[in-house]
Each structure stands twice: as C-alpha cells, then as structure tokens.
C-alpha cells in the first residue's frame, strides 16, 4: 500500500526540478501528503500545489495541462463535451440535440442519459490511456463542459438548440437530473464532472459575443437568468461551472463579481470555474477593459475563474512578477482544480477505471437513444387525423433533411456508428417499392448540399443508387480493399474515428461510379473539407469527372478566394466548390480518392445544382404517391455557434427570420398543388414559423435534430408505433416582427411568461393520437403559511383508443405577479387506453415565490390558482384549484 507513494516521494525529493517547489525536508515531513487517500481531496490538493513552480502552476490552469512527471501528474485535456452524448472523441451514442431532450419533458430520462454518457466518457478515457499511458488530450477527459442551461430567450439565437428551452423551471429540472446522471452517487469519486454553462446572462447575438455588454435588471437576473444555474449548483451540486464571453453590467462574465458574491457566497459553490474558450483574451481584445494578457488574467483569477480554456493564462507568471496578483491567488484556483482531479480518480485511480470500450454505443445505449428520440417527437398539428399513417400508402419522401447526416447529429456531437436516416427508415417501414424519393430542394438557394443518391450510380446500367466505395486500411490505396460496398450518399462523420477495423487518420477510400445531372448547365461541385488551420496540412482528396481532375484542395482554396464563399467572416480561404458545366444529362464517370490525413469534422461530395429540376422531381414523386412526407427545416450548418454563414435569414450562426427558407417553401407549394396529402416533418434546433405550412399541411411533426435513431423514431411516429407525447420547450412565435430587438436582454414581451400577443404554437404544446381527461385536482391544504409547500393531486385518464404518454403540466398564477401563470411542476406518464393514474406534484416555496423590482425573491400573501393539464391554461381546458398563503417570507438568492 505504501510502496508507490514512497517511491514517488523519493522521486520528488531527488528531482532537481523540485528544489524551487518543495525542499526534500518538506516533502519528507509531509510524507507526500497529496498521495494520502486518508486525507480530504482539499488537503491533498494543497500539498500537491505547493510542490509546483510558478510556471507549472500557470500551465496547469490552462485547458491543455501538461504532465509533471516528478509529481506523478499525467497530462490532461480539460476541454471535453457531452451536450447530447460523448462529443468529438470518436464513435459514441448520439442522443437527440439538447432542445429535443427538453421536448421529452422527462426528467428521469435525463438522469439515465447522463449516466449512459458518463459511462461512455469513462470508456473512452480508459481506452485513450491504454493507447498512451502518459495522459489524455482534448475530448478524452472525464470532466464535461455541459449542459448549456442558458435561457432560450429569443428564437433567433443559433445556440438555442443546445439549451433546454425558454423556461427557468423546466431548464433547471432537466439540468439537475442530467448533472446527477453525469456525476453519479459514489461517495468518493465522480463518474464525471458536469459544467453548466454559460454563467449567467448569455444568449447571443453570436457575432457580438466577444465584446458586448448586458445591463440586466435585478428583476430579470433573479427571475429568469439565475434560477436554472442555482438549481444546477445548489440542488444538483455540479462541481464545475463555465463563465460566458459577454460582459454583465460592465464586467466581463469571467471577471464578474457574481462569481464570488452569488456563486460562492450565496450558493456555496466549492468547485472550479472554467472560462469559455479565449474569453480571457476577449477581456483585453474584445471588451478592451484591460491593457494586456497579464492584467486580464490577473483580474479573472482574482474574480474566481480557475481554468482558462485558451493560452492567455500563460501570462500569469508575468502578472505575479508585476504585482497584479499573488501566487496565493493562483494557488486558490489551482487547489480547486487539483481537488477536482482527485475526485475524478485521475491522481490515484478510481472505481470507474475498468469500464471497457465495449460500453460505447452498447445495445442498451442504442435503445436509450431510440427511446429519447421517440419521446422527443412533438405533434404540432393534425387537424384531419392524417397521422398516424396506415402503412399501406404509397409515400413520396422529399426534402433536404430526408437523408442528411448533419440534421440527425446536431452540433457538439459524437460520430454515430450506424445512424438511422428518415429516408432509409421509411423504406424499411413501408417497403422500398412504396417509397418514391426526391430531394426536392436544398436547404437554401445557393447552399452546397451532398449530392443526393438519385444522381449517383455505381455503374450507368445499375439499378442501385450511390457510388461504389472501396475502403483501404492504409493511406495509399495499397492492396485489396478491406470493405467494398455501395454508399448511397457520400456524407460521413469520421471525426476521431474510422470505418470498422481501421485506424483514425490511417485509411483511404476510393469511390467510383457515375453522376447524372438532372439538367444541362452550370454547377458547382466540391468535396466538404475543413479549411486548414495555420501549420496544418491540406486535406487530401481528388475528384475526377470523365477522367478530368476537377476538385483538389488547392483548386477549392482558389475557388474560395474568388467566391468569398463565407463572406467577410472568412479568416482563411475556405474549401469552396469549383465551377463545372454539364452539357447533357447523360451519366458521367466520377472517381473520388480520399485519404484521411487530417481531422475533418465531416466529409461529403457536395454540389450547388439548379433548383428547378429538383422541384420537378419532387412533384413527379408526389403524383405517383398517396401521401407526401416532406423533411424540411434547418441544419447545424445554418444555426449554431459563431458561424461564417450569411445567407438570407441567417447571420453568423443566428437567424434574422423564423420563416422556412424560400427554396423549401417553393418545393412544398409545388407539391401541394398536386392535391396529395402533405405531412411536414421539421428537423430543426430553433423554431420555424410558416403560416403557409400551418394552413396547407395536413399534419406537422417537430422532430428536432433527433440523433442516431432519428429516422427510426420518425418512422415509428408516422406509423403510430410511437404515439407522440413530446411538448414544446419554447414558444413558436408568428414572426420576428413580434419580438423585441435581439440585443435587448430585458424579458418584457419575451417567452410565454411575458409575451402578450398571439403565437403560432404555445410553450408546452403537443398533440397525441389519443385523448386525456383530468379530474378536479385536490390540494393538501387550502391555506398555508408563507414558506410552506403544498401538494396538488390530480387523476389523469386516457379517454382515447390508443396507449400514450401525457405530460402533466402544473402552472400557478400568483397574486400581483406580472407574469402569466408559470410552470411550477410537470410529470410525464404513460397510460394505456382507458386507464387512469393519480399524479401528485409538490409546490415548494421557491416554486410559489416571485421576484420584486430589487431582485428579492419572496413568497407573498394572497390567493393562488393552480392549473393542471397537458399544456398552458390558455392553450387547453385545464382544471384548477385555489389556495391562499398567509404571511410573507423572503427566500435566499
């Protein structure tokens, strides 16, 4: 038991590098206390930190923390992501995007998903250490910069897809269960450490995030922006937190006094704070409040930002020498970080070290992904009862999202092993002979899209669609192909992974076949590749058409300079498509040689094609069918984090319009003119609001970015095998003209709580294939004292002919409150046809409280009304009950 600590202690004593960190006598007298498992993590961390040099301390406070061999510290990458599955670290189970998880309104499900993700994170970490015992790099650690619990206050925000929606109560309760699942129940070791983000007032605009300031009122801060964070810290006990890019009341978030007076003093937070990436640099380059890196770093550390995602904390030794902070200030932060590493079992091992790589995408996790995707489905409209389909219909599948990997994955994603696409799932469900397919339109006019399968064949006379793919386990196409198959679409995610039996960055693929343009004319053809970073080699791909080399990275870069493909936001020449002209509609030979040489996030054979023939093909498919199922919406290539996207309706990752893009609208209008039934399936993160769709579609289903099981979940829902029970976690407004300016963070006229006008669909809305009835609720008391809780019990009956899920929602109207009745409880239940169940929801003092103009949270005296039903009181016929509260009490922040 003592051999390893004594040997390491001796190494510390003998190392000449240790002289400035700790004398041999000090180490001997302390008996290498940082290795003593009988001490608290805090005591061990203090001993460990005091043995480091000033420069070592600064290095350990950056996300790529180097090894310190004499102390037994392995290198460790603190930057890891698990928003809706283990992200950016290779193969993983991909669950629905976070906004889709919120749409399940199933808090226990979040706990199970968090636990499954943490299991895969440990499996990946353990496998990485087996490959390289010296430590782990970015994306292979076991602390995670998730969940994103910012309030989706404005539907234009591109990162709203990463959140749990617009309501603080729903967000807080979904987050607490997810965090618990990640961190686990072991008394000594965290399975993982969750990091709710971005503290605390942050939700766009993306193009301004590095330099804008939010002057938030005390009321809005306490009423809207902090409750979910408080729940994450006080209730779920998250051991980490991330601060935001923007400033709050004039102070950059990562240098804000809120980190001390609210987070640590009021909420009792003991863990570590990490900065959003390069936000310390923003403090002097964006906000321009500090003269240089040393001054900004010093201010951030003293405010409570312990770990810098980025290199700016390299300036900390200089800051100490200039007297801008003390080494003791650094020690305080570093002790918190080292205590975290100890609690994760990263210093001397832990109970999760034996989780095998086989846990990744296990059978149980795949089933969980399907369950989550099915529960996320929100039936927005079904006025004529067209859904569920019978399964005997001939269907036309159209739309740019029918076969698009990116709109399954969402952003911050892992690489799904065997993703289920809507097109392929519907062929399996209905029979391939009953499904006609046409892409119909790009997401947006002029946007490059993967070449649809309908224009690719392995040979000109083949009945199959797609290209022949030959996969080699080397980078030079040597020997026989290890895999040979027909790939319908050339669009893959091999980020940090590889085809089965091959090594990442150690394989090559040759695709051959023919491409048949739908009409003669000018096209742009390209291969999706990441523009290389400074010092990074170019991607390695070549595309020949009719024997002529038409696409290479060099040609794509040259085209990017000419096209200014991503506008002024381009910092370097992008991998743009090149011009190509087809003079006929005959099959043309195509060959692609791709070598996996750099870590591209995605790879695909893309084009920008004339849209008229795409629409014509969709119309022809509709004419040959009974029902049209249109997969439309957005993609994470349009909405997301600080993106170089400036199409009409989009700006830098955010949106300037809620409308369905014109190219897709044109397609739907043409198809509807055939007179066939039209089912619209939205695949989006943020809301799409289109009056034409609402007036003309026979049914509308919101499917989100549904993850690896998305296609199967959608097919099950369309056929009634899955009875949709999801509910909207945000309001779908009619138009951005109904909203305040995006930059305005005041909550007046925002979200269901304060928006007074008509909307397209209300927060909490969602239909079912069955019906539910509610008996009059019973309360545990009709009169309570301020600070006490009250229980509301209601019996829910399935009054329809199908089994289904109901989301019981409790809203409360408070005396004198400026808000509409607000969500204060929810529970998702499953009821067989004709069955009933009693549901009890607890209203505690915080759920009954309200905030005054000074930001004080109180429970006020007066009459309260509780509403229960499957949606908001104004959206449904809710049952209600009243009670009174006597007295007044102030609650802690």
TrEMBL record:
Keyword Chaperone: no
Keyword field: Hydrolase, Signal
Residues annotated as transmembrane: none
GO biological process terms held by the UniProt record: arabinan catabolic process; xylan catabolic process
UniProt cross-references to SMART domains, sorted A to Z: Fn3_like, PA14
Keyword set includes Hydrolase: yes
Signal peptide as annotated in the record: 1-21
GO molecular function: alpha-L-arabinofuranosidase activity; xylan 1,4-beta-xylosidase activity
Domain (PA14) ranges: 462-621
Top-rank taxon, per record: Bacteria
Family the UniProt entry places it in: Belongs to the glycosyl hydrolase 3 family.
Protein name: PA14 domain-containing protein
């Amino acid at each position: 038991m003592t051999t390893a600590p004594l040997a390491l202690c001796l190494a510390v004593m003998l190392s000449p590098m240790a002289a400035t960190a700790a004398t041999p006598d000090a180490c001997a007298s302390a008996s290498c206390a940082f290795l003593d498992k009988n001490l608290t993590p805090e005591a061990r961390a203090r001993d460990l930190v005091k043995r480091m040099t000033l420069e070592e301390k600064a290095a350990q406070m950056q996300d790529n923390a180097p090894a310190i061999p004499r102390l037994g510290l392995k290198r460790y990458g603190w930057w890891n992501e698990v928003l809706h599955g283990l992200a950016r670290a290779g193969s993983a189970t991909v669950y629905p995007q976070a906004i889709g998880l919120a749409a399940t309104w199933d808090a226990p499900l979040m706990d199970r998903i968090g636990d499954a993700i943490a299991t895969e994170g440990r499996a990946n970490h353990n496998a990485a250490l087996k490959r390289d015992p010296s430590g782990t790099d970015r994306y292979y650690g076991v602390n995670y910069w998730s969940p994103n619990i910012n309030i989706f206050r404005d539907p234009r925000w591109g990162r709203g897809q990463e959140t749990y929606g617009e309501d603080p109560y729903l967000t807080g309760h979904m987050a607490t269960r997810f965090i618990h699942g990640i961190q686990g129940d072991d008394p000594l070791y965290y399975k993982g450490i969750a990091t709710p983000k971005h503290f605390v007032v942050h939700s766009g605009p993306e193009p301004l995030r590095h330099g804008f300031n939010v002057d938030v009122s005390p009321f809005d801060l306490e009423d809207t922006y902090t409750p979910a964070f408080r729940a994450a810290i006080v209730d779920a006990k998250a051991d980490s937190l991330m601060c935001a890019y923007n400033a709050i009341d004039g102070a950059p978030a990562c240098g804000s006094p809120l980190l001390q007076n609210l987070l640590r003093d009021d909420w009792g937070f003991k863990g570590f704070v990490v900065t959003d990436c390069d936000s310390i640099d923003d403090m002097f380059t964006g906000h321009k409040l500090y003269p240089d890196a040393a001054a900004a770093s010093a201010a951030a550390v003293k405010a409570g930002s312990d770990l810098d995602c980025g290199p700016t904390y390299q300036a900390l030794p200089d800051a100490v020498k200039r007297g801008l902070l003390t080494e003791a200030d650094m020690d305080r932060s570093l002790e918190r970080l080292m205590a975290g590493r100890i609690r994760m079992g990263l210093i001397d091992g832990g109970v999760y070290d034996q989780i095998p790589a086989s846990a990744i995408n296990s059978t149980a996790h795949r089933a969980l992904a399907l369950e989550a995707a099915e529960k996320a489905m929100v039936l927005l409209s079904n006025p004529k009862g067209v859904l569920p389909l019978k399964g005997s219909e001939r269907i036309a599948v159209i739309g740019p999202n029918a076969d698009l990997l990116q709109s399954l994955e969402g952003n911050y994603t892992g690489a799904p092993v065997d993703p289920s696409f809507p097109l392929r799932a519907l062929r399996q469900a209905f029979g391939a002979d009953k499904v006609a397919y046409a892409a119909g339109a790009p997401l947006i006019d002029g946007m490059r899209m993967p070449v649809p399968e309908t224009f690719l064949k392995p040979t000109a006379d083949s009945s199959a669609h797609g290209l022949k793919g030959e996969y080699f386990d080397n980078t030079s196409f040597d020997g026989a192909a290890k895999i040979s198959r027909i790939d319908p679409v050339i669009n893959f995610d091999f980020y940090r992974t590889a085809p089965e039996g091959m090594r990442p960055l150690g394989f090559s693929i040759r695709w051959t076949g023919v491409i048949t343009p739908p009409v003669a004319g000018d096209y742009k053809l390209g291969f999706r590749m990441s523009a290389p970073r400074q010092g990074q080699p170019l991607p390695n791909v070549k595309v020949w058409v009719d024997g002529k080399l038409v696409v290479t990275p060099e040609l794509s870069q040259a085209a990017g300079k000419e096209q200014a493909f991503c506008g002024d936001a381009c910092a370097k020449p992008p991998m743009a498509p090149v011009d190509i002209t087809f003079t006929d509609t005959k099959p043309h030979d195509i060959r692609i040689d791709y070598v996996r040489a750099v870590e591209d996030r995605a790879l695909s054979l893309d084009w920008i094609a004339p849209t008229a023939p795409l629409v014509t093909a969709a119309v022809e498919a509709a004419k040959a069918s009974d029902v049209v199922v249109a997969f439309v919406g957005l993609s994470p290539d349009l909405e997301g984090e600080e993106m170089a996207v400036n199409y009409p309706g989009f700006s830098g990752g955010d949106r300037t319009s809620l409308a369905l893009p014109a190219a897709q609208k044109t397609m739907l209008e043409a198809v509807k003119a055939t007179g066939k039934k039209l089912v619209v399936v939205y695949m989006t993160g943020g809301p799409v609001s289109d009056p034409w769709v609402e007036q003309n579609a026979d049914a509308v289903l919101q499917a989100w970015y549904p993850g690896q099981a998305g296609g199967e979940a959608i097919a099950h829902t369309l056929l009634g095998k899955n009875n949709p029970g999801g509910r909207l976690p945000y309001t779908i407004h009619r138009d951005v003209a109904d909203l305040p300016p995006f930059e305005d963070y005041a909550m007046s006229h925002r979200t269901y709580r304060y928006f007074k006008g008509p909307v397209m669909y209300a927060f909490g809305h969602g239909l079912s294939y069955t019906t539910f009835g509610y008996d009059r609720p019973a309360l545990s008391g009709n009169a309570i004292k301020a600070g006490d809780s009250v229980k509301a019990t209601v019996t829910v009956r399935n009054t329809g002919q199908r089994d289904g899920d109901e989301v019981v929602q409790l809203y409360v109207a408070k005396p004198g409150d400026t808000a509409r009745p607000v969500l204060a409880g929810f529970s998702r239940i499953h009821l067989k046809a004709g069955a009933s169940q009693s549901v009890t929801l607890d209203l505690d003092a915080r759920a009954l409280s309200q905030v005054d103009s000074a930001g004080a949270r109180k429970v006020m005296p007066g009459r309260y009304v509780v509403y229960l039903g499957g949606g908001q009181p104004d959206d449904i016929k809710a049952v209600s009950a009243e009670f009174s509260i006597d007295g007044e009490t102030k609650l802690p922040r």
